[in-house]
Amino acid sequence: MPTRTRSLNVVAILAIAFGLLTLVSGGRALFGGADMGAVVPFVLWFNFLAGFAYVAAGLGLWYQTGWATGLAIIIALATAAVFAAFLWRISTEAAFETRTMGAMVLRLAIWMMIAIVAKANGRVRQI
Questions:
Q1: DSSP characters over 24-73
Q2: Membrane-crossing residues (predicted)?
Q3: How confident is the model at residue 121 (pLDDT cuts 50, 70, 90)?
Q4: What are the extents of the domains in the chain?
């Protein structure tokens, strides 16, 4: 197995940690009964379900699987698509929480960075 680069180690750990935090916060918002304000349901559900993909991508990057880079790219693209749909929805003056905007910018930036690092470290083994 090729040696992992430091940058690949960092993004793998980041993806796993970000995924676990996403599952906890999303699960609390969806199932914990907490009043989250004017949430946008499709964004909340996407983020929660994406948490599982985040963990899978992080593990795949850590173990240098052949599919991990593709999954990271798909996550980045799907996040961009949901963010675009969110922006379209709020352009119709629908209620939303300001923190959702910041969270989507953060998610998109993180997953674009992870996808770029994963692609640049293309030394993943095929399974």
A1: HHHHHHHHS----SS--HHHHHHHHHHHHHHHHHHHHHHTT-SSHHHHHH
A2: 42-63, 70-88, 100-118
A3: confident
A4: 6-120
Per-residue pLDDT tens digits for 22-52: 999 999 888 887 677 888 999 999 999 999 9
What does DSSP assign to residue 126? P
In angstroms, the CA 72 to CA 117 distance is 10
Query: If DSSP codes are grouped into helix, strand and coil, which group holds residue 113?
Result: helix
The DSSP code sequence of 78-104 is HHHHHHHHHHHHHHTT----HHHHHHH
Dist CA 56 CA 75 (whole Å): 11
Which residues 6+ apart lie within 8 Å of 109 measured at CB?
A: none
Residue bearing tokens 């996550």:
75
Per residue in 46-78, pLDDT (tens digit) is: 999 999 999 999 999 999 998 999 999 999 999
Residues in the chain: 127
Q: What is the dihedral of CA 116, 121, 125, 127, to 10 degrees?
A: -10
CA distance 39 to 111: 22
